[in-house]
From TrEMBL:
Keyword Glycosyltransferase on entry: yes
InterPro entries: ALG11
Taxonomic superkingdom: Eukaryota
Gene Ontology molecular-function annotations: GDP-Man:Man(3)GlcNAc(2)-PP-Dol alpha-1,2-mannosyltransferase activity
A cellular component term, taken from the record's GO annotations: endoplasmic reticulum membrane
Entry keyword annotation includes Transferase: yes
Signal peptide bounds: none
A Gene Ontology biological process term: protein N-linked glycosylation
Name of the protein in question: GDP-Man:Man(3)GlcNAc(2)-PP-Dol alpha-1,2-mannosyltransferase
Keyword field: Glycosyltransferase, Transferase
Protein backbone atom coordinates (compact mmCIF):
# COMPACT_ATOMS: atom_id res chain seq x y z
CA UNK A 1 0.00 0.00 0.00
CA UNK A 2 2.80 2.39 0.86
CA UNK A 3 4.40 1.57 -2.50
CA UNK A 4 1.29 2.63 -4.38
CA UNK A 5 -0.07 -0.78 -5.27
CA UNK A 6 -3.75 -1.67 -5.15
CA UNK A 7 -3.90 -4.36 -2.48
CA UNK A 8 -5.94 -7.55 -2.51
CA UNK A 9 -5.60 -9.21 0.88
CA UNK A 10 -7.05 -12.22 2.66
CA UNK A 11 -10.24 -11.39 4.53
CA UNK A 12 -8.98 -12.29 8.00
CA UNK A 13 -7.05 -10.93 10.95
CA UNK A 14 -5.08 -7.75 10.37
CA UNK A 15 -6.22 -6.98 6.83
CA UNK A 16 -9.87 -7.34 7.83
CA UNK A 17 -9.66 -5.53 11.17
CA UNK A 18 -7.02 -2.86 10.63
CA UNK A 19 -5.41 -2.60 7.23
CA UNK A 20 -7.94 -2.56 4.40
CA UNK A 21 -10.54 0.15 4.95
CA UNK A 22 -13.76 0.70 3.05
CA UNK A 23 -14.54 4.23 4.20
CA UNK A 24 -14.23 7.07 3.74
CA UNK A 25 -12.26 5.88 0.69
CA UNK A 26 -11.58 2.22 -0.05
CA UNK A 27 -7.90 1.31 0.42
CA UNK A 28 -7.93 -2.15 -1.15
CA UNK A 29 -9.91 -5.35 -1.57
CA UNK A 30 -10.57 -8.31 0.72
CA UNK A 31 -11.17 -11.87 -0.42
CA UNK A 32 -11.17 -15.36 1.05
CA UNK A 33 -12.36 -17.69 -1.71
CA UNK A 34 -10.86 -18.09 -5.20
CA UNK A 35 -13.97 -16.55 -6.77
CA UNK A 36 -13.65 -13.50 -4.54
CA UNK A 37 -10.01 -13.05 -5.52
CA UNK A 38 -10.96 -13.31 -9.20
CA UNK A 39 -13.73 -10.73 -8.71
CA UNK A 40 -11.34 -8.39 -6.87
CA UNK A 41 -8.76 -8.68 -9.66
CA UNK A 42 -11.44 -7.87 -12.22
CA UNK A 43 -12.50 -4.83 -10.17
CA UNK A 44 -8.90 -3.61 -9.97
CA UNK A 45 -8.43 -4.00 -13.72
CA UNK A 46 -11.71 -2.16 -14.36
CA UNK A 47 -10.94 0.82 -12.11
CA UNK A 48 -10.84 4.16 -13.86
CA UNK A 49 -7.57 6.03 -13.66
CA UNK A 50 -9.15 8.55 -11.29
CA UNK A 51 -10.62 5.90 -8.96
CA UNK A 52 -7.33 4.00 -8.94
CA UNK A 53 -5.49 7.22 -8.05
CA UNK A 54 -7.94 7.95 -5.20
CA UNK A 55 -7.57 4.43 -3.83
CA UNK A 56 -3.78 4.56 -4.00
CA UNK A 57 -3.69 7.95 -2.26
CA UNK A 58 -6.06 6.76 0.47
CA UNK A 59 -3.99 3.60 0.99
CA UNK A 60 -0.74 5.55 1.21
CA UNK A 61 -2.28 7.97 3.69
CA UNK A 62 -3.64 5.10 5.79
CA UNK A 63 -0.25 3.48 6.35
CA UNK A 64 0.73 6.41 8.58
CA UNK A 65 -1.34 4.68 11.27
CA UNK A 66 1.43 2.09 11.45
CA UNK A 67 4.39 4.49 11.69
CA UNK A 68 6.93 4.43 14.50
CA UNK A 69 5.62 7.75 15.75
CA UNK A 70 2.06 6.44 16.02
CA UNK A 71 3.30 3.25 17.71
CA UNK A 72 5.24 5.29 20.29
CA UNK A 73 2.22 7.51 21.01
CA UNK A 74 -0.06 4.51 21.49
CA UNK A 75 2.53 2.66 23.58
CA UNK A 76 2.98 5.62 25.91
CA UNK A 77 -0.79 6.14 26.15
CA UNK A 78 -1.43 2.56 27.30
CA UNK A 79 1.64 2.10 29.50
CA UNK A 80 1.81 5.50 31.19
CA UNK A 81 -0.92 4.65 33.72
CA UNK A 82 1.24 1.76 34.94
CA UNK A 83 3.95 4.15 36.08
CA UNK A 84 1.90 6.95 37.63
CA UNK A 85 2.58 7.34 41.33
CA UNK A 86 -0.54 7.67 43.45
Amino acid sequence: MAAGLVTIAHRSGGPLLDIIQSSPVRTGFLAAEPEEYARAILEVVALTTENRRKMIEAARDSVDRFSSVEFEKAFIRVTEPLFVMT
